[in-house]
Design brief:
Blueprint (H helix, E strand, L loop, with lengths): L2 H14 L10 E9 L3 H12 L4 E4 L7 H5 L19 H4 L27 H14 L4 E2 L4 E8 L7 E7 L4 E9 L5 E2 L11 E2 L14 E5 L3 H10 L5 E6 L6 H4 L11 H7 L5 E4 L5 E5 L5 E5 H5 L28 E4 L3 E2 L36 E3 L17 H20 L13 H11 L2 H4 L13
Parallel strand pairs: 1-2, 1-6, 2-3, 6-16, 8-14, 9-10, 9-14, 10-11
Antiparallel strand pairs: 4-5, 5-6, 7-15, 12-13
Length: 460
Amino acid sequence: MTALVRGVLLGLALYTGSLPVLSCAALVYHDYCIIGAGPSDLQAAYFLQRASRDYLVFERSHAPGSFFALYPRHRKLISINKRYTGKSNSEFNLRHDWNSLLSHDRRLLFQHYSRDFYPNADEMVRYLEDFASLLKLLVQYNTAIIHVTLERDEQAWNGHYFILTDQNRQNYKCSCLLVATGTWVPNVVNFPGSEYVEGYETVSTNPEDFTGQTVLILGRGNSAFETAENILGVTNFIHMVSRSRVRLSWATHYVGDLRAINNGLLDTYQLKSLDGLLEGDLEDLAIVKDKKGKLHITLRFYVENSNISAGIDSITLPQDELDNFAPRAPYDRVIRCLGWKFDFSIYNRSLKMMPGKGDKKKYPQIKPNYESTSTQGLFVLGTASHSIDFRKSAGGFIHGFRYTTRAVHRLLEKRHHGVPWPSAVYPVTQLTNSIIKRVNEASGLYQMFSVLADIILLRE
């Protein structure tokens, strides 16, 4: 049985519910392999399918959108679902539709799945399931890719093939690898007493579990404020601590900063209630637990230079000159809400997948065309590609990366299949009108400003 035939049988099996029996040594080949079945993965699969390319998507869960099945924990998305704009132009309306993926099927607009301006995450899961099934995308579920390496071959598109291994030790081979697994590994800060910290990914979402408690939240992003918003009405008070000040999206114009829907704690803080915002480097902190189970916040320096076995009384607590340091009161719970980072663990050293630097270290290093800086033919899509426009544009979110994914597909069509980048030809007399129309209607340029652009070529 040839590799091509095995690939066809595998694709057919996705619809029949059964897989052909292959030995562990069998190597299934596809031109394109996509790791993950989130929004950017399905968007890439859609374009490959429309172009009749040989591809397969691998998803570790039983359904697409597994990240949205868990997060956000309190199920309220911050991506707006603006169903009415007063315009009938579908391209213009996509400027204000932050959840739909690009397709030819009008049924797959998110406005048909939710009436809420800020939808429930469960509706996103349902939308992604329909996007995959209605468009008959080739997704192999319950397949976790646990290792990726290179096989050198001068006859390959990029001088090498990618070898993927799943949890059952089945191997797959492809010429081009699209990685769209997002950022899902929790950011963790280790300091003395960090074992007492609960993670955003596991902490209870039932407000009743926090009744009458005093809570410290580590972090000041949307997940931190979302957590605070959920328990604001039942706690004694909430303190939030982070290295940097709160950035409000309406002030920074960056969608990833704190959104108005989550900022209730800012009201109680600014209006002189008991809640508070503190600034400090988390790595300098320490937590000490007393005999009653209360958590005391101090500095790492004091813990490392004290006899902890002598009890909490022997640990110096930070205080200012007026003895008015806010965290002197003990906490019942400390919750970590520090966001996510990319999972580098499955990639062999041969791929040279390296994290970025500074505030981009949670993303892999990629070129401006979304290709790995070290490995040709490996492209990073979706949220994990946000290093290109971090804190500048919308490339880390559905309404941004749906366009950058399309751009990568067009690049691959040109590179490997000789298909020209789509373009329109107009007489020079229509140049001004064409530019004005694009400025007024185009959704990709509108969302991915400073990243995507139109090029106008004037023929002599």
